[in-house]
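Support case: user asked for a sample of complex input and structure output to validate their parser. Sending the pair below.
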Amino acid sequence: RKEVEQDPGPFNVPEGATVAFNCTYSNSASQSFFWYRQDCRKEPKLLMSVYSSGNEDGRFTAQLNRASQYISLLIRDSKLSDSATYLCVVNGARAGGSYIPTFGRGTSLIVHP
Amino acid sequence: GAVVSQHPSRVICKSGTSVKIECRSLDFQATTMFWYRQFPKKSLMLMATSNEGSKATYEQGVEKDKFLINHASLTLSTLTVTSAHPEDSSFYICSARDRATGNQPQHFGDGTRLSIL
């Protein structure tokens, strides 16, 4: 089983739609969680951190379920500019006490007019 | 916000050349930096974790003699691809985190596209 799993998609949605992505992780000792966005041939950019209580930033809502070991990202009122690959990142504990980020393979979102 | 600068953004060179890529944190001190490579339409693959003042920790399958990492200061880490060959052509990205604990998100450089002819 991969450490971090995401459905690669693509998710093809019309403008204005609501779309949700899930990400599961295998390391129960994982400490912190993030969603990044990566545009084609560009570096990943931090979209939002994911907190235990859930958090919202404008049209984006992130949730964490530690018991089931998954995180989610909800995008409301999708815009054309939301088209990108969304990467789930989990900081997992390694021997020695360090926390190493592990990326999911990303979920591709295509928003069409 | 946190800014990470990576240089050069694009390299094209002959097989057998060694290529050095720099990663700098511009407005924070990066105790930990990460080096990734990414092939087209594939996920980011962590190559190594670089901690200031100590040897890098390489992921399984990554040749440390091939990919030399130096993290001599809190704001600079370098990756040298030694004797590069066409199969080393890829998108190399660094990221930096300003604390050694796991709570902080990492911030990415712009990446370096390496093409070996």
